Amino acid sequence: MVVPGSRLATLAVALIVAVLPSRLHAQAPEQREELERFRDSLAATSDSTGLLALERRMIDVAKADRNNAYQHLRLGFLSLRLGELGGQSHYDDAASEFQWAIDLQARWPYAWYGMGLAEYGVGDSQISFITGLKTMLGKDALTRSAMAFAKSAEVDPSFSRGLVELSNTALRQRVNIKLGVARDALRRAAATSAAQDPEVLLARGRVEREVGDGDSALAAFRGYLEKGPDRSLGELEIARTLFLLGRFDGVQPYYVGAASDDSTSVAQYRADLAPIASDSVLREFDHQSGAERVAYLKKFWTQRDRAELRAPGERLREHYRRLFYARKNFQLTSLNRHYDIVERYRSGSRDFDDRGVIYIRHGEPTSRATYAAPGLEPNESWRYSRPDGDLLFHFVAREDVQDFKLVESLFDVLGFSQQVALRGGEASRNPMAEELMTSRVELSPIYERLQSAGSIGSGQYQAEERHMGQESIALGTTTDSYQLRFAQELKVHSDVLAVGHDSSGSLVQIAYAISGKGLEPVTVTRGYLYSVRIRFAATDPSGHVVAALDTTRHFVAPEPVPENEHLVGRVAVPVPPGRLQYHLAVQQGEDAGIVLPRDSVRVGPPESGQLALSDLVLGDRAANLAWRRTDQDTVLFNPLESFKRSDEMQLYYEVGGLRPGSPYEVRIAVKRQGGGGGLFHKIFGGGGSALSLKFNAQATTPLESAHRGLQLERLKPGNYVLEVTVTDDRGRKDQRTRAFEVTAAFPEGVLQRPGARTAVRQDQKRLHQGLGFDLGLDLHQMLGDPGAGVEGRDVHQERRQRPVQGIGLAVLGAGERETRPQRDAGMAEQPQRRAVQRLQEPFVERQALALQRDQAEARLIAVPPRVHHEAIGELRILTRRPAQGGAQLLLAEGDRVVGDHGLSGCARCIGDGDRWGPGRRSACMHGSCHRLRLG
Hints:
Elements: H1 7-17, H2 29-43, H3 48-64, H4 69-84, H5 89-104, H6 109-122, H7 128-137, H8 141-155, H9 160-172, H10 179-188, H11 198-210, H12 214-227, H13 231-244, H14 251-258, H15 263-273, H16 279-286, H17 290-307, H18 314-329, H19 354-362, E1 367-369, E2 379-384, E3 391-397, E4 404-407, H20 416-422, H21 431-440, H22 446-452, H23 455-476, E5 488-489, E6 492-502, E7 505-515, E8 522-524, E9 527-539, E10 545-557, E11 566-574, E12 578-588, E13 592-603, E14 612-613, E15 617-619, E16 626-630, E17 633-636, E18 642-644, E19 648-656, E20 663-673, E21 680-681, E22 689-698, E23 704-711, E24 718-728, E25 733-743, E26 751-752, H24 756-771, H25 779-784, E27 788-791, E28 794-797, E29 807-808, E30 849-850, E31 859-863, E32 868-869, E33 872-873, E34 876-877, E35 881-882, E36 888-893, E37 896-898, E38 933-934
Parallel strand pairs: 5-13, 11-26, 18-25
Antiparallel strand pairs: 1-2, 2-3, 3-4, 6-7, 7-11, 8-9, 9-10, 9-12, 12-13, 14-19, 15-19, 16-17, 19-23, 20-21, 20-22, 20-24, 24-25, 27-28, 29-38, 30-34, 31-36, 32-35, 33-34, 36-37
């Protein structure tokens, strides 16, 4: 019964008063308007009982006038509404009515439009396998619906509703996609009034973008932005398109659109976020509005950029590229997903299969593999290569060939019964399992081990392989990533050390050494340019980025860095105290770089006032890498962590949390790694320490710093651990350790800072020429070695137990005679030394001689005639006056040169028998001596 005054009463009156001709060749505008009002009234009604009563009366009217197409259209839309309210069978009734209208008026667009809605409502079989077959054959509901909408646009290009529904239906399809049909229909409508309809503009932009015409899509979306009711949705669509084109200028419209509280656009933002956001993140998103939502999204994406060492906006752009790819390749055909017993993971996604879930989270896999054989389900395996450990995923499609699901093990592809049988160690006896493993050998070495293992080993490796899959699923489905990758891998040694402070608080020192073998310089007017980009991010235990750095350093060298040397550098990053995890990448040039495995660092005390020892900085002067902590203090680094036995290793550390005026104790021990009996090999007996030292100190400030020089000559070549333990007067302790290597000769690859080190090498070459040495002799190293001499092109070690205290110079006099070398009574016969030759070409006047800053011990520098010298500045001996007559010796102490040329008592001039004493000027400096001797 129809109640007077109700919406159903209005519908009934409209039905009775509608007197229309039975056949029309085209629908009049007033008829379309009346039909839209009727549909609006239906949409506002939820009383299915009343609607059923109305349907019975309308059927009676239609029976009396069977050839009235308009009555059949009304009955069709009424049945559609009943289907929407839960009566699935009514969709079939609607299809019948629309088909009747089409038979009567094939040129009416509403008849075809209604048929498209009805076909989509009828849907597909509940059996996913049948649905998949229908989809492949083009008989599925989406295809039938799209064809009907396309016909509505064909009979009337100005019919905007058909164009919009055709576009939306085509966008939902996965196979037999009607995007081309929709695009052609939209382009034919360009000359009609429908072209300026905002909904048509929005639909056209989406279709053009999907078929790959980004410029046409942008034009349509900008038209929608001008005419459409929802500007925020237009901004989002423009941003999506710009991101798909690989452009960063999509960031600005993305955040502009997010500021609107329009429910449609907010839902779109949420849907885009959902594939990688946890439930808690989505709940937080739902509580944001306006500017707060914008700030929330900026924080969400910026955190991901920094954590993955990316530039701002990179992760957001990549997310939309992945969404687009997943829609084209991994979109679900059917929502009726059924799971096998081995398919333990349940994504809950209604849009993508499990491949799409992983792809959106982690992007393009490093490698893929598949294997096809009769009786074997479709399968794929993906590997993601990562510095912290690879991720390996296996997918299998059962029932629906388009729905791939995650499984824990490759053997789950065979089915539950077979994979259970294989657990007994029979993997190598199953031909299908054998072929599967062979197809995956390139993905992981576990499959090669499985193939070659026996029955016991096979069971062990199967358990390992399954555990690897379980861990990959657990991590891969709960996190997302955008791994940095480089076409060429650099060989880089790095140190990340929590030591030092500035006005902002604690610092982390990043020292690096890049092998010259992988460096690619750019030739510039001043020489060779090396651009090094350092990217660093530190996260707290909750995963939030608390410190980040992205900086590029430019180095210019007069000549290329040799392959066996290293380019070195250092940067400092302010960080908060606590246990932090960090991520570091080093890049040189456009294509070469490396992403180092994630690691952790402890910064300062966990709580204020606690005793805290900093990380240990190990360095030496040969590395040519220093941190000028203050004007009076320099800390040396060696990222190679390799030291020559004759080197003095420099140790620096800081102790915080001390009470001024209180004593504290420091213990330093060097222990051998490896060897029989455990980690530390007791090579010197007693306590297991190769070297040990204990001393007491008194704190003057809450933060104390210390330098220590450690002689390594007692250590045999090998790997060691330096252990430093600090104990204060209240019994509190803190300890740090640091691994390093001791070598018999120089570590492979001398470290070089472009410019400074090159200048040192060039000046040494000129000095060697002036003194008559072979060019292979490194004078600086010779001066620092105990008992060094010249033998051919090599430095000869006399194995003295004490370091050289001075050098006697056989000055380039007129004499040509040669004397026998003196011999140390405690040493075996020494090989013949090369005589020093007369200087043919003196140094260029006013040429500076490079020297490492802050020399800790006294050092002698030989200066030939006419070379100027003065106090040592940073990396240089500056000029003052020329040497008078012959060559002179300068004694370098720290940053200055002793002007009176005082020499230590061990310096000897050989040739005339004179000996120089401390503080005496040498009469031999202008004599005829012509042999060099260290002693």
